[in-house]
Amino acid sequence: xxxxxxxxxxxxxxxxxxxxxxxxxxxxxxxxxxxxxxxxxxxxxxxxxxxxxxxxxxxxxxxxxxxxxxxxxxxxxxxxxxxxxxxxxxxxxxxxxxxxxxxxxxxxxxxxxxxxxxxxxxxxxxxxxxxxxxxxxxxxxxxxxxxxxxxxxxxxxxxxxxxxxxxxxxxxxxxxxxxxxxxxxxxxxxxxxxxxxxxxxxxxxxxxxxxxxxxxxxxxxxxxxxxxxxxxxxxxxxxxxxxxxxxxxxxxxxxxxxxxx
Length: 261
Ligand code: KIV
Ligand code: NA
Prior knowledge:
The chain is of the alpha/beta class.
């Protein structure tokens, strides 16, 4: 059954939280079937599905479209909708945009950085918020690990604590040293969800395209559980061969009588 933000919060120190991204209805259907705890409709959609160089090209309209598609495929799974770049610049703009994602089907929203007044405003308006610190791609100049120096590590730690204090019920820690992620996870009372942050977080998130082996780049900290690129190419090649050699659709018409359906 669909988990609420309170259920996810209660999983801290009890059971690791599984999270995958999804952007489309058929993938969302499969993920719900798999029993994944949470689906994130991330603004990574801009890079892994739309072919942009960064997530900064993604708009609130794009996010509404994808949140809606994912909700139609996964009616009983907790869905987090990402607030895209600039959509959360001030508390009032953020509230309008968060409400748009909730209306499109999200159960909660995620936003990058220690925007404490924004988080507090959304939470006090009844919108569950997931924080995100460490590497924050909307504003990062590179995709390098964050927190290798002691001053950087200190900032990530302080930001995580502030994000919790502002009212977030969960927080993503992206691409930070594993010992730092472990320390932050122990210091916080809300669940931490790691990506490139080691095994000591309260949960893990993986971009579905990375897990599938779909795309042209997968971060080194990701894992490919399949080779979907190869599978799609193989299917398309077989189809082209059958059309060009006049096998398809003759082979299905002849044997299954599909022309009468
Ligand atoms: O947009 C996204 O998919 C994310 C995850 C990588 C955490 O924010
Ligand atoms: Na994101």
